[in-house]
Amino acid sequence: MNLTTSSVLEIGSYTGYSAFAWYEGTKRTKADIILLELSPEMIAATRRTLDTYNLNDRVTLIEGPAQESIATLTGTFDIVFVDANKDGYLGYVKAILDQNLLAPTGVILCDNVFARGMTISTSANPELDNSVRPYWTECGKALQKFNEYVVNDPRVDVAMLPVFDGVSMIKWKVDASNTGNSVDGLGEGSANGNCSGVHADGATNGSGNAANGTMDAGNGTADEVTASAVRQSSGENR
Q: What is the pLDDT of residues 44-62, one digit of tens each?
């Protein structure tokens, strides 16, 4: 698939370094990059990153609850990267699909869909530190509902990649988008038990390392940018 990346949406910006990765990975196509963030602390950190590395010419940071921000968006995005409060994933992705914000050949990437194993079972990760177990247990419950939703959504195909804490790739099924174009089918906040953590209702609660680092996008296709981001996923993930 030869998919030109002209637009990226990131839900949950954390410190802005994943935005730096999207920026570097889309130099040839000059993609517009929109970030959604709620946490004042993370907004400040993201703005420092954007200013330090001169990213403001193509990166726009929208402050506020992601669900509300998504409702104001128009156009379509070739890449949507979701790495925010885990109990918000279902609402975010559903809104992206319902509003047809995903380009006909675009991809949604959702990070941490394994929730440290808690998505499978609360006993799936006996080595998980007790200080974060309540948090990830709640995240696992939320992400289990999310995973079941997207797998059963007849509009899309889903591939779940076993990259560290799990990354789901979501694409329109053939002729599922309004355009009728053919698409190749794919076939921490606090540790107090609140999955939303300090960034409830729509912002990030982690590092965004699935997209961290500098990427060489080759010919600027979304598949190549996505693959590069996934390859750079590290163990220090949210």
A: 999 999 999 999 999 999 9
